């Protein structure tokens, strides 16, 4: 499991982290990490939408330029 790390080793590490940071900071760390992941996903989605819009716009521009060439 996980490159030779057992579940017991993970539980021991988790218990040590809770002892060091406390449950409140551990909760805050989890919520901060979740917020960061959510922000990253939103940024990736916005970038994908922007690229889709750029591709659609370039197709429209290419279509207009080919119409202009036909009428000349």
TrEMBL record:
Keyword Cell inner membrane found: yes
Residue ranges, annotated region (Disordered): 45-72
Basic and acidic residues biased stretches: 61-72
Organism of origin: Marinomonas mediterranea (strain ATCC 700492 / JCM 21426 / NBRC 103028 / MMB-1)
GO terms (BP aspect): protein transport by the Tat complex
Gene that this sequence comes from: tatA
InterPro entries (alphabetical): TatA/B/E, TatA/E
Membrane topology: Single-pass membrane protein
Highest taxon of the lineage: Bacteria
Function description: Part of the twin-arginine translocation (Tat) system that transports large folded proteins containing a characteristic twin-arginine motif in their signal peptide across membranes. TatA could form the protein-conducting channel of the Tat system.
Gene Ontology MF annotations: protein transmembrane transporter activity
Family statement: Belongs to the TatA/E family.
Subcellular location: Cell inner membrane; Cell membrane
Subunit structure: The Tat system comprises two distinct complexes: a TatABC complex, containing multiple copies of TatA, TatB and TatC subunits, and a separate TatA complex, containing only TatA subunits. Substrates initially bind to the TatABC complex, which probably triggers association of the separate TatA complex to form the active translocon.
Transmembrane segments: 6-23
Name of this chain's protein: Sec-independent protein translocase protein TatA
Keyword tags: Cell inner membrane, Cell membrane, Membrane, Protein transport, Translocation, Transmembrane, Transmembrane helix, Transport
CC terms in the record's Gene Ontology section: TAT protein transport complex
């Amino acid at each position: 499991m996980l490159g030779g790390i057992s579940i017991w080793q993970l539980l021991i590490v988790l218990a040590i982290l809770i002892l060091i940071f406390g449950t409140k900071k551990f909760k805050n760390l989890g919520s901060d990490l979740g917020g960061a992941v959510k922000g990253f996903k939103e940024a990736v989605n916005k970038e994908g939408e922007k690229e889709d819009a750029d591709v659609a716009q370039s197709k429209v521009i290419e279509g207009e330029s080919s119409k202009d060439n036909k009428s000349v």
